[in-house]
């Protein structure tokens, strides 16, 4: 036998299956074996295994001194059955026997009592009135009992009787919890809660607390038709907030930081009280329209007040702020708590948020379309003559009053519009913007305000801002951020698209239609078409083609709207981080609905402006032709001989009227659009007017005496284009006409000199060919008498020099 026990493997297999008592007896069986084999190594093998079973870790021996002590200078007096597992967590080859002896001395009697089912007076006197300490003792006993697992019968007896004692103990705790909860002794209930949590009985504790909660519901007589004012919603939420705050107090007393019960409670509250509250409050009863409108109109108010009443204004919960960082900073923990509540609310309200975003976008578009449709209906009730004042008395208009303030009013409005967006306090700025808009409409855009409604356009932009701001209050989490940004972008896109298709396009179509139908020859002839004396002449000089004036105001208005859109894009969409301009710039027009809508708007305006200005210039030229026909007198450039001495040397009335028309229309686009468009517009007017003036001169008979008046007219035209319009490409044309007028001043007796002048094309800036100059000369009153000499100089021979062969 002794020989067999000398084999290490056999010896260790025997030892590891012995309980402590049997192991000690085994060591005394054979003195020889004990001296030879059962030494410190076998002891360490046996007891270290038991220490590891109860959760202690093995570490290397640090000191080689003969002094053996417990870890970290712990004294035996410090150790109790409650704290020993907290105090001692490791062992080494020097102290393992001492450490095991400590645990054995503390727990072996408890295990023996459990094994023998001796449960009466189980706990020592000092622990008999403290259930929390009793629960900790039981927990530690069952932990120590793991070291007895090699004694199967003993181990199972301990576990079985432990479970019996534990069940008795738990039922006793529940009974005490019930009594004290009913008496509202929540701190006492909290002690028993902690006991049960020590046993890992979270489900029992949760079930107990949930059984005590009666979740509130919305009164059944609540009627959505009463409206969704903040006051009403707050009054309905107030009982819910009081309910949550009361439970926060109870949960903190019962659970402290032992278990995160608040999260479970608040989720149940949201599911059983809040969601039904939202559904019932936002559900139409059939008498106030449809459910969709009720939901869209009410949800933002309900949501914002939920986040205020049931999140921001909730009492702080210590239990609700349990965190992985274990921070004790009260401010930080308060932030953690309210962020947790905020996130929970948004998780459960997210389906409603997404529903609102979808339905609200559709409703927003319908609302805008309805507003534009109402405006168009209102305008259809007005006659065209009333709308644009195209009556006989108003076929001419005085523009001088509006010119000084036109650019200033526009700048003031756009400046105040810019300041309204992207700032915190908007009340005073909004009032200033409204005042500036009124000035702009009354002064600079008064003639077009019934064709296009800038106030309505501004209102649409404000509604767009309000709807986007409403959407942004739901921008609460990463998974919603992209969706909400897209929805905000879509709202802006809808706004631009509707402004373009349902307001700007109809306005331009109507304005162009009026331009096309405008015919100066169909207007009644009034005294205004004839020269006036003294002060009355001023009204004549300020006449205009009113549809073209209105069209220019329409261009100005659409430019204001485009600038408002650009300002809104920068100050709202970019500033509020709805759009990343760098990412947006990388997209092509087909990848971005917003870019496409904006581009379509700009293209619409550009195309209508090009078409309208072309028609408008034609109508202006028609007006000028009408002036030439009705105001230019035959005697202007061919005065009667008897009146020669009395002719006043000054521009003709026709010339002054024409210059007035040019002055009133050439600058209509200033401040309304870009310089390139203005230059093209002014140059086109200059070229067309030049051609018209040339044709007009070719219809006149001009005497030498009348040439002085013609020169006055040409000087006035040249002065306008050279000093006022200042389009360099046009000036040479009218310089050439000035020089042409000199050919009528040469006396008929100097016909050869006249011929030489015709041949000197340099004098006419290269604008006219010799044939064209010849046509001008033919309008001389004495043409027949000078024709022979002129042609001889021009061609080198006369008719008499020709011989028929």
* Helix-and-strand structural type: mainly alpha
Average pLDDT taken over every residue: 81
Number of helices: 31
Largest sheet: 2 strands, parallel
**What order do the strands of the largest sheet run in, or round the barrel if closed?**
1-2
* Total strand segments: 2
Portion in beta strands: under 5%
Q: Give the CA-based shape.
A: elongated
Distance between the termini: 166 Å
Radius of gyration, taken over Cα atoms and rounded to an integer in Å? 51 Å
Question: Would you give an account of this structure?
Answer:
The chain has 805 residues and is mostly helical. The chain has helices at residues 2-5, 8-15, 20-27, 31-36, 40-53, 84-87, 96-115, 131-144, 152-182, 186-198, 202-211, 230-255, 261-281, 291-312, 330-380, 384-388, 406-420, 427-444, 454-472, 478-517, 537-541, 546-574, 581-586, 593-631, 653-666, 675-697, 704-725, 731-741, 751-759, 770-777, 783-795; strands at 57-58, 90-91. It has a two-stranded parallel sheet with strand order 1-2. Helix 7 crosses helix 9 and helix 17 (406-420) packs antiparallel against helix 18. It is elongated and about 170 Å long. The chain starts with a helix and ends in a 10-residue tail after the last helix. 31% of the residues are buried. Residues 390-404, 422-426 and 525-541 have low confidence and may be disordered. This is F-box protein: endocytic membrane traffic, recycling ReCYcling 1. Residues 147-790 form the Exocyst complex component Sec10-like alpha-helical bundle domain. It holds the Pfam family Sec10_HB. InterPro entries: Sec10-like (IPR009976), Sec10_HB (IPR048627). It comes from Maudiozyma exigua.
């Amino acid at each position: 036998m002794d020989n067999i026990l000398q084999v290490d493997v056999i010896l260790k297999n025997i030892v590891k299956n012995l309980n402590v008592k049997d192991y000690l007896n085994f060591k005394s069986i054979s003195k020889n074996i004990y001296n030879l084999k059962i030494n410190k190594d076998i002891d360490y093998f046996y007891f270290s295994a038991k220490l590891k079973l109860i959760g202690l870790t093995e570490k290397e021996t640090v000191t080689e001194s003969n002094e053996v002590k417990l870890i970290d200078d712990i004294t035996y007096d410090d150790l109790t059955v409650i704290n020993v597992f907290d105090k001692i967590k490791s062992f080494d080859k020097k102290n393992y026997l001492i450490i095991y002896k400590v645990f054995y001395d503390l727990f072996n009697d408890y295990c023996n009592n459990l094994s023998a089912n001796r449960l009466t007076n189980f706990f020592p006197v000092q622990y008999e009135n403290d259930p929390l300490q009793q629960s900790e003792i039981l927990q530690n006993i069952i932990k120590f009992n793991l070291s007895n697992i090699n004694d199967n019968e003993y181990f199972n007896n301990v576990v079985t009787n432990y479970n019996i004692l534990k069940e008795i103990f738990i039922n006793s705790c529940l009974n005490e919890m019930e009594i004290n909860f009913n008496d509202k002794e929540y701190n006492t209930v909290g002690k028993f809660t902690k006991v049960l949590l020590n046993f890992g009985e979270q489900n029992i504790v949760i079930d107990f607390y949930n059984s005590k909660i009666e979740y509130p519901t919305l009164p059944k007589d609540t009627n959505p038709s009463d409206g969704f004012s903040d006051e009403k919603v707050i009054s309905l939420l107030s009982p819910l907030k009081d309910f949550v705050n009361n439970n926060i107090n109870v949960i903190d007393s019962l659970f402290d930081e032992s278990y995160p019960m608040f999260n479970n409670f608040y989720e149940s509250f949201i599911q059983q009280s809040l969601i039904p509250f939202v559904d019932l409050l936002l559900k139409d009863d059939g008498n106030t329209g449809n459910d969709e409108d009720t939901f869209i109109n009410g949800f933002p108010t309900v949501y914002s007040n939920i986040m205020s009443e049931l999140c921001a204004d909730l009492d702080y919960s210590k239990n609700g702020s349990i965190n992985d960082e274990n921070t004790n900073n009260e401010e930080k923990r308060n932030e953690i708590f309210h962020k947790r509540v905020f996130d929970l609310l948004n998780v459960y309200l997210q389906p409603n948020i997404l529903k609102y975003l979808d339905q609200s976008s559709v409703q927003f578009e319908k609302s805008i379309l309805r507003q534009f449709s109402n405006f168009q209906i209102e305008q259809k009730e007005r006659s065209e003559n009333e709308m644009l004042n195209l009556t006989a008395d108003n076929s001419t208009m005085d523009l001088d009053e509006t010119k000084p303030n036109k650019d200033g009013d526009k700048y003031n409005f756009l400046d105040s519009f810019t300041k309204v967006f992207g700032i915190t306090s908007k009340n005073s700025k909004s009032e200033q913007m409204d005042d500036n808009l009124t000035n702009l409409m009354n002064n600079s855009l008064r003639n077009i305000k019934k064709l296009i409604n800038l106030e309505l356009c501004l209102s649409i932009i404000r509604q767009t801002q309000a709807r986007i701001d409403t959407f942004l209050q739901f921008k609460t989490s990463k998974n919603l951020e992209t969706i909400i940004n897209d929805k905000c972008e879509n709202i802006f896109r809808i706004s631009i698209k509707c402004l373009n298709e349902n307001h700007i396009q109809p306005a331009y179509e109507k304005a162009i239609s009026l331009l096309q139908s405008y015919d100066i020859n169909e207007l009644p002839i009034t005294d205004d078409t004839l020269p006036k004396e003294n002060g009355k002449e001023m009204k004549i000089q300020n006449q205009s083609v009113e549809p073209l004036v209105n069209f220019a105001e329409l261009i100005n208005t659409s430019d204001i709207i485009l600038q408002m859109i650009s300002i809104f894009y920068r100050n709202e969409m970019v500033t509020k981080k709805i759009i990343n301009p760098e990412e947006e710039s990388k997209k092509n027009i087909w990848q971005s609905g917003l870019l496409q809508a904006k581009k379509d708007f700009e293209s619409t305006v550009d195309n209508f402006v090009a078409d309208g200005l072309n028609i408008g210039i034609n109508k202006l030229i028609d007006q000028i032709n009408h002036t030439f026909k009705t105001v230019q007198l035959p005697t202007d450039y061919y005065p009667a001989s008897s009146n020669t001495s009395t002719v006043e040397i000054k521009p003709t009335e026709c010339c002054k009227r024409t210059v007035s028309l040019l002055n009133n229309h050439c600058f209509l686009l200033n401040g309304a659009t870009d310089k390139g468009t203005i230059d093209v517009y002014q140059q086109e007017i200059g070229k067309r007017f030049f051609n018209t003036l040339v044709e007009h001169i070719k219809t006149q008979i001009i005497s030498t005496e009348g040439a002085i008046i013609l020169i006055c007219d040409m000087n006035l035209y040249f002065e306008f284009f050279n000093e006022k319009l200042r389009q360099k490409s046009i000036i040479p044309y009218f310089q050439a006409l000035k020089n042409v007028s000199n050919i009528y001043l040469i006396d008929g007796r100097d016909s050869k000199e006249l011929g030489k002048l015709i041949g000197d094309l340099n004098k006419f800036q290269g604008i006219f060919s010799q044939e064209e100059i010849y046509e001008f000369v033919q309008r001389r009153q004495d043409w027949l008498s000078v024709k022979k000499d002129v042609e001889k100089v021009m061609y080198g021979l006369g008719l008499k020099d020709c011989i028929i062969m």
